[in-house]
Write a structure and sequence with these properties.
The structure is a single chain. The protein is of the alpha/beta class. The protein has two domains: 4-177, Peroxisomal Thiolase, Chain A, domain 1, CATH 3.40.47.10; 180-328, Peroxisomal Thiolase, Chain A, domain 1. The chain is built from ten helices and 13 strands. The protein has helices at 22-26, 33-40, 55-69, 94-102, 118-131, 155-158, 223-244, 262-272, 283-286, 293-301, and strands at residues 4-14, 18-21, 44-47, 79-83, 108-112, 137-145, 163-174, 179-187, 195-196, 220-221, 254-257, 310-317, 321-328. A five-stranded mixed beta sheet has the order 1-7-6-4-5, with helices on both faces. The protein has a four-stranded mixed beta sheet with strand order 8-13-12-11, with helices on both faces. Strands 2-3 form a two-stranded antiparallel sheet. Residues 31, 35-36, 39-40, 116, 155-156, 159, 195, 223-224, 226-227, 230, 260-261, 264, 288, 316-318 line the site of coenzyme A (COA).
């Protein structure tokens, strides 16, 4: 084990102002507030409006807040990793744009894609850069403008997703009892048929877009299959991380789960023996922001986290991808 720990030193976040409510969705597709709330736990979601606004527009606001809150000089940042499935462009990548906009002149940066598990995978990657001893400070961002890939005539998906971005500052600390203690990640590419965006990549290239295949350029989900897979895999991997670190539900102060469906979250907490009051929830106001969900939970609950709290992260997403992480929280927020 490296004597260097990657420690979270601060949190930033941003959600757009525009609120899309269930009532508004009732006017757009055949659905109703009761169905959406009881099946998913979602009441409203935020949408990024305005021309020429991509994921970076939200991420930059989150990073600026983080730099200010932690009194960090952007030139001291060694790396910025951005997990997103809705980059502004394919090239240059979103994290490069963010570095430029926030003045992180000495940082290297790249984007990372692992669907809804992306932030957890990026945080693990960043933690390993720090534990290697080569880098001292990094920012890990998770954010998505899901409204750019959602088909607002498809009731199966348009009720689920929202836009938002969050980030954390990671720093190296020697022999610290705090920080990122353990992580586990898994993938299974046989999940392709159940959750995908088939258009826009190299198999169905942008120039092949036409009126007959345009739906393939939006997110597609076979909800029931994804639901069943998510429930077992997210709970299994979180239970595995707890077991490996000799933690019971009593020892865990917070479960920070991916916010895709309240029923999946409840099942995961049950399996871990963690009571509902210890679960960070913001799905009712943001929906599923994909890469944004975990850092936005940090952002909303930062003031309630206490130094020394045992926090378990759990994520599941398209691919399939899934993972869990054990963090010992390093600070009290004032
Ligand atoms: N409003 C009203 N009815 C709807 C609806 C909506 N927005 N969307 C679907 N329905 C209907 C379906 O057409 C279906 O009708 P039918 O029985 O007449 O065919 C019925 O509701 C049940 O659909 P189903 O997909 O089986 O519902 P569900 O209970 O599985 O809930 C999801 C759907 C999407 C909420 C749920 O499957 C889910 O959350 N899946 C996992 C999402 C997830 O974890 N993603 C992780 C990666 S991001």
């Amino acid at each position: 084990m490296s004597p260097i720990r990657a420690v979270i030193k601060g949190v930033g976040g941003y959600v757009p102002e525009y609120i899309l409510t269930n009532q508004e969705l009732e006017k757009m597709v055949e659905t109703n507030d009761e169905w959406i709330t009881s099946r998913t736990g979602i009441k409203e979601r935020r949408l990024l409006k305005g021309d020429d606004q991509g994921t970076s527009a939200m991420a930059v606001k989150a990073v600026r807040e983080l730099l200010e809150k932690t009194n960090t000089n952007p030139e001291d940042i060694d790396f910025i990793l951005c997990s997103t499935i809705t980059p502004d462009f394919l090239c240059p990548v979103t994290s490069n744009l963010i570095c430029d906009m926030v003045g992180a002149k000495n940082a290297f940066s790249f984007d990372l894609m692992a669907a809804c598990s992306g932030f957890l995978f990026a945080l693990s990657t960043g933690a390993n850069f720090i534990e290697s001893g080569r880098y001292k400070k990094g920012i890990i961002i998770g954010g998505d403008k899901m409204s750019s890939i959602v088909n607002y005539t498809d009731r199966n998906t348009c009720i689920l997703f929202g836009d938002g971005a969050g980030c954390v500052l990671l720093e190296a600390e020697e022999n610290s009892p705090y920080g990122i203690i353990d992580m586990a990640m898994k993938t299974d590419g046989s999940g392709l048929p159940y959750l995908n965006i088939r258009g826009g990549g190299s198999r169905l290239a942008p120039q092949e877009y036409n009126k007959d295949n345009h739906e393939k350029y939006f997110i597609y989900q076979e909800g029931a299959t994804v639901f069943k897979t998510a429930v077992t895999r997210m709970a299994d991997i979180a239970a595995h991380i707890m077991e490996r670190n000799n933690l019971t539900g009593e020892d865990v102060q917070w479960l920070v789960p991916h916010q895709a469906n309240k029923r999946i979250i409840d099942a995961t907490a049950d399996r871990m023996g963690v009571s509902a009051s210890k679960v960070t929830l913001n799905i009712e106001k943001y929906g599923n922001t994909t890469n944004g969900t975990l850092p936005l939970c940090f952002w909303d609950f930062e003031k309630q986290f206490k130094k020394g709290d045992n926090i378990i992260l759990a994520a599941f997403g398209g691919g399939f991808t899934w993972g869990s992480m054990y963090i010992k929280w390093a600070y009290d927020s004032h």
